[in-house]
What we know:
This protein is α+β, with helices and mostly antiparallel strands. The chain has one domain. It contains three helices and four strands, in the order H-E-E-E-E-H-H. A four-stranded antiparallel sheet has the order 1-2-3-4. The radius of gyration is 13 Å and the shape is globular. The chain starts with 9 loop residues before the first helix and ends with a helix. The relative contact order is 0.23.
Amino acid sequence: MIDKEKFNVLNYIKKEEYCGSMNGMRYMLKKKEKEEGTSLEVIIWPEPFCYAKTQEEKKQRREFEFTTEGVSQAADWLNLQYIEQKPLWDLSKGTV
């Protein structure tokens, strides 16, 4: 699970995509520029492949405000998705 107190990635995301994994669930946080302003896009997908090699239909996306609070909400969402979809993440671990 992601510890929100230690998940201080906003300054990193301002310049680069931030990727991680959690027991079968891979995730990416990235800055998304659009006409209405900047948002934080969070994408999750099952292991074993990287983002570029994973089929688009296996990816799930959600957007948050590009703020410290948005990062906190993203961490909550990632933790919730990990719990709610645990059978998917367990199934994907160690498969090639």
